Amino acid sequence: MGHGGGGLLSAELMTHLFAPAYGNETLAGLADSAVLSLGGARLAFSTDSYVVRPLFFPGGSIGDLAVNGTVNDLAMSGARAAYLSCAFILEEGTDLTVVGRVAQAIGTAAVAAGVTVATGDTKVVETGHGDGIYLNTAGIGLVPAGVDIRPQRATPGDVVIVSGPVGAHGVAVLSMREGLEFGADVVSDTAPLGGLVAAMLAVTPDLHVLRDPTRGGLAASLNEIATASGTGIEIGERSVPVPEPVAAACAFLGLDPFYVANEGRLVAFVPPDHADAVLAAMRDHPQGAGAAVIGTCVPEHPGLVVARTPLGTTRLLDLPLTEQLPRIC
Amino acid sequence: MGHGGGGLLSAELMTHLFAPAYGNETLAGLADSAVLSLGGARLAFSTDSYVVRPLFFPGGSIGDLAVNGTVNDLAMSGARAAYLSCAFILEEGTDLTVVGRVAQAIGTAAVAAGVTVATGDTKVVETGHGDGIYLNTAGIGLVPAGVDIRPQRATPGDVVIVSGPVGAHGVAVLSMREGLEFGADVVSDTAPLGGLVAAMLAVTPDLHVLRDPTRGGLAASLNEIATASGTGIEIGERSVPVPEPVAAACAFLGLDPFYVANEGRLVAFVPPDHADAVLAAMRDHPQGAGAAVIGTCVPEHPGLVVARTPLGTTRLLDLPLTEQLPRIC
């Protein structure tokens, strides 16, 4: 299971198996989406499969994730999603009314994200070879001129901003899956982030890095950026907003909220001169109302992420070996 | 299973469930790929998931299908594939050497097709919720200026050409799956068709329809075109090339080769003035060496496909309710 968790095992699979097999540099960039040139247009292109269990959870469904997840991967290159593909793998015997509800969720989420589902596919596998519905979406969008957002661009001095409280998606899915009562008031944060990113780019095209901390949570995203850029990252442990019910659920379950998946949050690395204005623009946007500065890039400990505790000590936030919660998206 | 078979049940799912849920006209075009405008570029965009069983079969693997299938869907709009996404859904416990062999097959097929795998994803599901490896690819490519290839453009007088013998892929997979000896000399026809289509477009940009007869075979593709265009189609039953071992296997199994899946063939609808030159160009190309004229579009029986038998009688070739062979691609 670990190879699908977005942690170290996933990264090894990419670095040692897929990238050499495909033999190209585009893939090796390891961003949420690839940025390509085609016919004079500068495009972002991304894909994700969705195997979340259960299909419906507080605040959303696999259909919402499939739209928002890929829309957000494109947004992390600065692109506004234009078109999505959507492919179903159905397990034989899945109720068609459930398929219909998921399709409706996809349609509604696409309208909310301002994206068109342009092409699709359906395959069916035998009972016992699937789990109701698996989805895949791929998306394309235009990258605005002058925008160059990628993990390699993080640099000492950059201000690290998160767009809102973390951990809600993972806790919402887990509480639904396990029938835990204490999670009843936590709903997934699944949301499209293209509008928020556009508002940030209106302040300055010179955002260095954007990342949506999904599998592996905030800690995995920060580690990927530290590794790709070679910069050190220091965050204030208490600066990261964690909703009280999420913190309580994580304490009960022995989870660290910094490692729990989010589906409607982003972390931004912004040059210090623009940080205040970008933060203000984020807070003016519905998807960024809870935005907060959580840390900075530092010249010390290059490639490593360190959290400063309330006691003034520091601890290493390392890349998780795997995801704490399998099939979270 | 029928809803994934590429037949009538698949079409109903699209028409009555997905298209209304997504609420857009692009999807309703029902072509192999969508043709879109983005940033001044005219793009083809397509996706397919691949659930073929077994993963390796005579002549290819799920990796070959995942590359060639999507490359070919783009080619059916006249586009040369430029970039692919590739997403794995792995069943827990799948041997990583098998994953590596599939990744290598993807890399090799991508080189052969002249396409770059630009972005990817990996998810893992528990044992008993997958079947080794499921793949999804999406692809984008440029549609040349002046090219407008879609099923609605078939018109009485068009010459119907198939690029080579039909039925090999389905028989190769089935013989492997069932351990049938008589199919031992049949290998899948899986191949990229972008080069062949480019050679045809060099003769004339005015190709009316291209289709790769995968699930549901030649009969399903012809029916989709007859329905979309409202033209009648008449083919000569003996004009369709069927390799002898394929015909023998089909006779033994009670299959009709016109309904068996192909993964490296196309059917073209060409205005009569250009038909001879297009056929000659096809025969000059490695992927079209066995090309043959199989029929024409006729003003009679609009929307229906009729096969003329050697006795001079006709029979209706209707849309299959489902695929004869599940999980063929």
From TrEMBL, chains A, B:
Membrane spanning residue stretches: none
Pfam families: AIRS, AIRS_C
Domain PurM-like N-terminal as annotated: residue spans: 32-143
Entry-linked Gene3D superfamilies: PurM-like C-terminal domain (3.90.650.10), PurM-like, N-terminal domain (3.30.1330.10)
Positions of the PurM-like C-terminal domain: 156-301
CDD domains documented for this protein: HypE
InterPro entries named among the record's database cross-references: HypE, PurM-like_C_dom, PurM-like_C_sf, PurM-like_N, PurM-like_N_sf
NCBIfam families: hypE (TIGR02124)
Protein family according to the UniProt entry: Belongs to the HypE family.
PANTHER family referenced in this protein's UniProt entry, alphabetically: CARBAMOYL DEHYDRATASE HYPE (PTHR30303:SF0), HYDROGENASE ISOENZYMES FORMATION PROTEIN HYPE (PTHR30303)
Identification of the protein by name: Hydrogenase expression/formation protein HypE
Organism encoding this protein: Actinacidiphila acididurans
The encoding gene: hypE
